[in-house]
Design a protein that fits this description.
Shape of chain A: globular
Number of domains of chain A: 3
Largest interface: A-B, 59 and 59 residues
Strand order of the largest sheet of chain A: 5-14-13-10-6-7-8-9
Helix content of chain A: 25-40%
Distance between the termini of chain A: 36 Å
Number of helices of chain A: 12
CATH topology of the largest domain in chain A: Glutaconate Coenzyme A-transferase
Strand content of chain A: 15-25%
CATH class of the largest domain in chain A: Alpha Beta
Largest sheet of chain A: 8 strands, parallel
Oligomer: homodimer
C-alpha cells in the first residue's frame, strides 16, 4: 500500500485512499455528516424478465455468465450458513473455471471453511476481500499476501457502505434454505435452514445483479419472503447450499465453570440493583457461555419479580427461545439464528422477528434500534 | 393546459409535458425501456435522530413544520382507511392554518370523504391532485376547476413513478392503526385497523420526510412493522386516524341476484372445463358481488375435486379467509384488506401475507407476480 497517511481523530495514521478509492478518515463520534444521496440502482423493467416468473437457470456458472461476470467485479455473499457455507466456494470455483480474474469478494462475514478460497487469492481469481477475514484468511492478509488492501467492515458499516454507494456490488449471490423460481427466499425451511437472511438484504436491494441459490426450490410463493424476488435476476437449484450440522454450530451452551457462573450471577444482580431489570426492559446477550448465563440469571430474577422484558435482541438460541415461549420476553428481534431451536422459533412464532442491519445497525439511517437496548451483555466463553 | 400534443401509440393526442414536467407518451406494450437509475433519497444519519428512538412530536402541525412544509411541495397519503380516512383532511387543515399554498396532494387513492378538501382546492392550499379523483373530486377536475392538471396513476404506476423519481414526495404522512414512537407501523391492530399498509411503502422508502400518524401508540417494537421506523422522521399521536365502520365497508357481499349467480356459476364452470382449476392453481377475484360469487363456485369445485389453490390474490374478505382456513387456499397474497375478517386473518395467520405495489404491480421491477396469477375474475356488482 503506497499512500499518503493522515492522522485521524483517534490519533492513528490512516490512508486517504484504499485500492484507488478515496476514503474518509475517522472524524470522531457524531462528527461526520453525510451529504450525498443513497446509491441508486438502475431501473429494471418487467420486459426483461419472464412473465411466468420463472427465473431459474440450470447452473450457477451459467447464471454468473448471464449476470455478466467479468474481471474486476465485486461479488457478494452472506454468512448465514456460517462454517457450513458451500455457496461462496462454489461461486469462485465457477469464476476460476471461467478464467475470471481480480474479483473483489465482499462477504458479510467469512469463516474458516472459506480457507478453500486461498488458492483463488493465490492465483489471482480473487484480488482482495472486503468484509471479514478470519482464521487462515486473516493470517493470509496479515502476512501481506493479498494483492490489494483488505477492508474490514462492521455489519452496520457494511449495510451503510452498500446503501451509500461506497461499495458497488456487481453480482450478489444469495444462498437460501428455501426459495421459489421467482427469487423469493428465506432461511427457515429445508435441510440448509439457517434462520433469517437479513445480512443479504442490502445485497438484494442494491446489487446490479442478484442470484438466489437454493437446494430447496418450492412452488411460488416462498413464504416468508425475507428476500423478495422482485430484487432477483436469476435463481439456481444446486444439490446443497450448506452443511446443516455446521450451520447451527451447537457450541452456544451455558458455561459450567463455577467462576464464570458466579461472574454471570453478579452481573445479573448488578443489573437488578441498578434498576435495569424492570417491567418492559430490553436486553441483548452475546453468544458466549458466560453471557448466556447472565440471560438465565435474568430469567430467574424476572420470574421472581413477575415482570417481563418487552424485547430481547438476538442472535437467538434455545435459551432466548425458552424465555419467549415462557412469556418472559414479548419479542425476539433477531439478527442471526444460532441453533435449531432458534430456526424453529423464527419459522413458527410471529413474536420471533427477522431483522436486518438496516433495522438495527446502519448508522446512515433515520435512527436504529441498537441504541434502544437497555443492556447488552457481551463476553467470551 | 397549453401544450404541444403528439399522437401516442394508442392513437391519442397527448401532451409532452404536464404541470411543467416532461412526460413520455405511451409507446406501446413493452416498447418503453427505462434507462436511468432509481430515485436516490438523501443519506440520513443517526446523529440527527434521538438515540432513545422516540421521534414523537406533539401535534401533526408541528411535525409538518419540522418536516419543512412549504409552498409547492408534494404531500402524499395512502388510502387504506378508504371512506373512513381522517388523515388527509387533517394534513391539509394544518397546511391551511399555516397559510401554505400550491401543494400537490399525491394520495394512493381518494374517496368521497375527501370532498372535504374541495375548499382547499378552491382557496389555493392545494393546487392539484396526482393519484386518483373519485366522486366530487373527480367532478371538480372534470369541470376544469383545478388550477393545475390532474394525473391519474394506477397502483403499480404510482410505485413506479416514485421509485423512478418521476414524482418526488417532499412529505409522506402515513396513517396507521398501530405504531411505536420510532415509527414502526402496521394496520392490523387498534380501533382504526385497516389491514395491511402496502400502499404507503413507496412513500416511506422514497419521501424526503416521513411522518407516521396513529391513534394507537404502542411500546417499541410495533410488530409487524410493515412500515419500518428506520424510514420515518417523526411520529404523532392523534385522537383518531380513521372511522372504523367506514374503513371496512362491509359492502362486499355475495350477490343474491339469480341472473348474476348464474353468470358466476357459468364463469366458474368455464374455468373448470378449460383446466384452469387444477391443483396448485392461483386466482384473483374482484370485490364485486358477482366476482365474489365466482370465488365461491371455485370453492365448490375444489371441494368436489379434492384440490387446492397455491395462492389467491387479495383484496381479502371473509370469503377468501374462509377458503384459507378451510385449506382450499394455501396462501392469500393480500394487497388490501376489505373487511374485519380480513383484518383478523392478516393479523393472526402467517399464510395471509402482506404485499405491496412493489411486490405485485410495479412494472419497473425484476418481474412482479401480477402476471403469475392463473385467472383473475373482475366484475362489477
Amino acid at each position: 500500500m503506497s499512500n499518503n497517511l493522515v492522522k485521524n481523530a483517534a490519533g492513528r495514521f490512516v490512508p486517504t485512499s484504499i485500492n484507488g478509492k478515496p476514503v474518509v478518515p475517522f472524524k470522531g463520534v457524531g462528527k461526520y455528516q453525510p451529504t450525498g444521496n443513497r446509491f441508486a440502482p438502475r431501473i429494471p423493467s418487467n420486459i426483461d424478465y419472464p412473465s411466468d416468473g420463472n427465473k431459474q437457470i440450470s447452473t450457477l456458472k451459467e447464471a454468473l455468465v448471464k449476470a455478466g461476470l467479468k474481471d474486476g467485479m465485486t461479488i457478494s455473499t452472506h454468512h448465514h450458513f456460517r462454517e457450513g457455507d458451500l455457496v461462496a466456494n462454489m461461486v469462485f470455483d465457477c469464476a476460476h473455471e471461467l478464467g475470471i480474474k481480480n474479483l473483489c469478494w465482499f462477504p458479510s462475514a467469512s469463516f474458516p471453511c472459506h480457507s478453500y478460497l486461498l488458492k483463488y487469492l493465490d492465483d489471482g481469481t480473487i484480488s482482495h476481500i472486503e468484509g471479514s477475514m478470519n482464521g487462515p484468511l486473516g493470517r493470509y492478509c496479515s502476512e501481506g499476501k493479498m494483492s490489494k488492501t483488505a477492508v474490514l467492515r462492521s455489519h452496520g458499516g457494511r449495510y451503510q457502505a452498500i446503501q451509500d454507494g461506497d461499495v458497488k456490488i456487481d453480482i450478489a449471490v444469495i444462498g437460501a434454505g428455501c426459495a421459489d423460481t421467482f427469487g423469493n427466499a428465506n432461511g427457515v425451511n429445508g435441510n440448509s435452514a439457517s434462520g433469517l437472511l437479513g445480512f443479504a438484504l442490502a445485497d438484494a436491494q442494491y446489487a446490479n445483479r442478484v442470484i438466489v441459490v437454493t437446494d430447496n426450490m418450492v412452488a411460488f410463493p416462498c413464504i416468508p419472503w425475507q428476500i423478495q424476488g422482485n430484487y432477483v435476476d436469476f435463481t439456481v437449484k444446486v444439490d446443497q447450499v450448506g452443511i446443516p450440522e455446521k450451520i447451527v454450530s451447537g457450541t452456544t451452551e451455558i458455561t459450567r465453570s463455577p467462576d464464570r457462573l458466579l461472574l454471570a450471577e453478579m452481573t445479573a444482580r448488578f443489573c437488578d440493583i441498578t434498576g435495569i431489570i424492570h417491567n418492559g426492559f430490553s436486553f441483548q446477550t452475546g453468544a458466549g457461555g458466560t453471557a448466556l448465563s447472565v440471560g438465565n440469571f435474568f430469567a430467574e430474577i424476572m420470574r421472581e419479580k413477575g415482570i417481563k422484558a418487552r424485547f430481547a435482541r438476538g442472535g437467538s438460541n434455545k435459551y432466548l427461545v425458552q424465555m419467549l415461549e415462557e412469556g418472559l420476553v414479548e419479542y425476539i428481534l433477531d439478527g442471526q439464528t444460532f441453533d435449531l431451536e432458534g430456526v424453529r422459533s423464527i419459522r413458527d412464532n410471529p413474536r420471533h422477528v427477522m431483522t436486518s442491519p438496516f433495522t438495527s445497525y446502519n448508522y446512515h439511517s433515520k435512527g436504529n434500534f441498537a441504541s434502544m437496548v437497555d443492556v447488552a451483555i457481551l463476553g467470551a466463553t
